[in-house]
Amino acid sequence: MLPAIDLHTHSDRSDGTESPAQVMAAARAAGLDVVALTDHDTWDGWPEAAAAVERTGVALVRGAEISTSAGGISVHLLSYLHDPDARGLGAAVRRVRESRLGRARRMVDRIALDFDLTWEEVEARLEPGGTVGRPHIADALVARGYVTDRSTAFAEILSSRSPYYVPYDAPDVVEAVELVRRAGGVPVMAHPRAASRGRVVEDAVIEELAAAGLVGLEVDHRDHDEGARAQLRDLARSLGLFVTGSSDYHGAGKPNRLGEHLTDPAVLEQIESEGYLPVVRP
Ligand code: AMP
Ligand code: ZN
Ligand code: FE
Ligand code: FE
Fold it and tell me: Is the per-residue pLDDT at 265 higher than 80?
């Protein structure tokens, strides 16, 4: 049987609900052979996840999902196996985390005009060294009983079209691809056609990213319908990019289940051959 490889998950170092060790245990329970931990804008969870490899028997791909912008359109860029000490990439994600923090506080200020909610309630949900996002505000709203779950919070109070929404600063996506490459990482564009999250980029942007060093597109993802997948597969073929499939697991924070989409072992081989770090194997 082919190894089961899921290359996109989140822990509580960003907006997942489980610790890195719990994500590894959940990966084992889901029957995965390989899992990538790709928290938003941080790799703080890597040591804890790596320490669980032996115990769980699940191999770990150390990664991250970097928040970037293409002319105002939010683009998520997965980076695999980069050097965690690379200066340029490290500084870029540190700036995004700072900006996300100021943005979350401003969103809470706005929400607090209409709801009983304090910054302290949101802050209490953050791990040190982690990355704040709207899901943390969502959880505080759920705890207050204003909404039943994260999805409802996103559909109503936290939507990018809501008056409470505040954007954050993120590096340009072309620059981010170059920073990932310079850090020895393997850049893959996350859910390029996830239209439910907001505007998505044109094919021309993906062409530009391929020229800048992008190596793959995340195609099999629950936010893509069959049409989007077929179109992305064609685009990947014409640009010489590989394709991945992943769950984008967030623990209890989203319905996404570990292993609901998988990546071809040959693609993982290519990622490992191009990455600075090795895959951590049991
Ligand atoms: P932010 O990065 O702060 O703008 O928040 C976006 C993050 O929230 C994404 O990484 C998603 O994983 C998560 N998210 C977006 N929509 C939803 C939803 N409907 N339910 C739960 N989480 C969501
Ligand atoms: Zn997330
Ligand atoms: Fe994402
Ligand atoms: Fe994600």
Answer: yes
Q: What distance lies between CA 260 and its chain's CA centroid?
A: 16
Q: Cα(7)–Cα(78) distance, rounded to whole angstroms?
A: 9
Residues paired with residue 35 on neighbouring β-strands, in sequence order: 6, 60
Give residues (CB < 6 A) around ligand 1: 15, 40, 133-135, 150-151, 154, 250, 253-254
Determine how many CB atoms are found less than 10 A away from the CB of residue 199.
12
Per-residue pLDDT, averaged over 81-85, amounts to 98
pTM over 0.90: yes
Confidence of residue 195 (pLDDT cuts 50, 70, 90): confident
Q: At what angle do helices 134-144 and 87-111 cross, to 10 degrees?
A: 30
Looking at all shown ligands, the one closest to residue 198's CA atom is: 1
CATH number of 99-155: 1.10.150.650
The helix/strand/coil state of 272 is helix
Nearest C-alpha neighbor of 171 from the set 231, 253, 91, 115: 91
Per-residue pLDDT tens over the stretch 92-106: 999 999 999 999 999
Cα 70 to averaged position of ligand 1 atoms, centre (Å) = 18
pLDDT tens sequence across 237-255 = 999 999 999 999 999 999 9
Domain parsing of the chain, residue ranges: 99-155
Query: Would you place residue 207 in the very low, low, confident or very high pLDDT band (cuts 50, 70, 90)?
Result: very high
CA nearest 67: which of 197, 233, 162? 197
Q: How far apart are CA 171 and CA 70, in angstroms?
A: 9
Structure tokens at 183: 């850090």
